[in-house]
Write a structure and sequence with these properties.
Blueprint (H helix, E strand, L loop, with lengths): L1 H22 L5 E8 L4 E7 L3 H4 L4 H14 L4 E7 L7 H13 L4 H14 L4 E8 L7 E8 L6 H5 L1 E10 L2 E10 L4 H11 L4 H15 L1
């Protein structure tokens, strides 16, 4: 029974996320987080243009709250809208940007290079784009674009790297876009970089650790 309830809740959560992504696409939807409390279900949504969701005097968000309540059986949904202040460091927004450019007839390479440049200019550590489909020919293929530094494996890849996915519908079919963005350098890499630059030496690090042990004793 518990397993069935967990599966049902996860399916319901996925459907809600898909619904919000579709409803908030014009507002520059990024992601959402759902928090369950004894009194309410808190739904935090990150978008590029919050005003389009809230509406005049909050009427749009009130109507959305009632719709979500009826469609998904959530008793007391409470929306919290957060603004994405730096959209080109957000993987989902960048993926949607590339998809939009391609759907409007833009060249996929130009769209990817423009997105990468804007992302790096916005302060990201690294970005990787993977695009698959019929890219100007009858045969499907995959192309990759990257800039800066990015982790693809290990804990930093799971925790620090943002991931975004989008689809562009064109005459030849569907083009899939995957975007990964790292906005903050992992601590182990930052330390290794400082050591290589001579800012911190291995001996200094060891002496510092010994000194801290002595202070604590």
């Amino acid at each position: 029974m518990i397993e069935r309830k967990i599966i049902k809740n996860n399916i319901n959560k996925l459907k809600l996320e898909e619904y919000l992504e579709k409803e908030f696409s014009r507002a520059g939807y990024s992601r959402c987080e759902i928090q369950h409390t004894p009194l309410a279900t808190r739904i935090i949504v990150w978008v590029q243009r919050p005003g389009l969701i809230i509406g005049r005097s909050g009427k749009t968000i009130d109507a959305l709250t009632e719709t979500v309540k009826k469609m998904f059986g959530i008793e007391n949904p409470q929306f919290e809208i957060q603004e994405v202040t730096n959209p080109f460091t957000d993987a989902q927004i960048v993926a949607d940007y590339i998809a939009s450019m391609i759907q409007r007839g833009g060249n996929y390479k130009k769209a990817c290079y423009t997105a990468m440049q804007n992302c790096m200019d916005a302060g990201a550590v690294g970005i990787a784009i993977r695009i698959s489909g019929k890219l100007g020919g009858a045969m499907g293929r995959t192309e990759k674009f990257s800039a800066g530094y990015l982790k693809f494996a290990g804990a930093p890849a799971d925790e620090a790297v943002q991931k975004g996915y989008a689809r562009a519908e064109v005459k030849l079919g569907t083009i899939g876009i995957q975007v990964r963005i790292l906005n903050k350098m992992p601590e182990d890499v930052e330390l290794a970089k400082k050591i290589s630059e001579g800012v911190v030496s291995g001996d200094n690090k060891e002496e510092s650790a010994k000194g801290n042990d002595g202070e604590g004793s």
